[in-house]
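User: Sequence recovery, please. Input:
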């Protein structure tokens, strides 16, 4: 008989979920800080539009960072909180100082592609574990992010 967590999930499957959620947390954290940099450093013709959009995005990312960390805790594990761990586990790289809006949006689109792959992996893991909480969370994130990808892609005429 397998050992169950406080919320009734298999402990080994819960650990796999928490590890993958920590990977997601690392990527969200680097994505968040990059987006703050785009917001701070953007220049040019679309400054006002992009400055606001980047602020909306980093505020949303900050909420997701908190929600992912809380989900890890709900699963009975500890969220990473050090940037050294984030840099080690993130597939999203720290960006340099970017002032060009098109380059910033292209990097945002890349970050979303990385994030959504991890979230889709989490959908599979959470379905296998019977973890409806993580599954619903990832499903909601993906649905909203797919729309953002469409919108940012439209900005780039893709």
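Assistant: Recovered sequence (158 residues):
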């Amino acid at each position: 008989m397998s050992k169950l967590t406080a919320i009734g999930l298999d402990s080994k499957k819960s650990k796999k979920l928490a590890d993958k959620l920590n990977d997601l947390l690392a990527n969200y954290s680097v994505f968040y800080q990059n987006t703050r940099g785009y917001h701070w450093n953007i220049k040019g013709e679309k400054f006002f539009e992009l400055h606001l959009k980047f602020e909306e995005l980093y505020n949303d990312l900050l909420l997701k960072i908190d929600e992912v960390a809380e989900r890890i805790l709900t699963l009975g594990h500890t969220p990473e909180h050090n940037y050294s761990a984030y840099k080690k586990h993130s597939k999203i790289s720290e960006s340099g100082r970017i002032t060009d809006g098109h380059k910033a949006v292209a990097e945002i689109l890349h970050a979303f592609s990385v994030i959504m792959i991890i979230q889709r992996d989490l959908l599979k893991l959470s379905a296998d574990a019977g973890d409806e909480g993580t599954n619903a969370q990832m499903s909601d994130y993906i649905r909203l992010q797919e729309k953002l990808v469409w919108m940012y892609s439209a900005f780039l005429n893709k």
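DSSP finds five helices and no strands in the chain.
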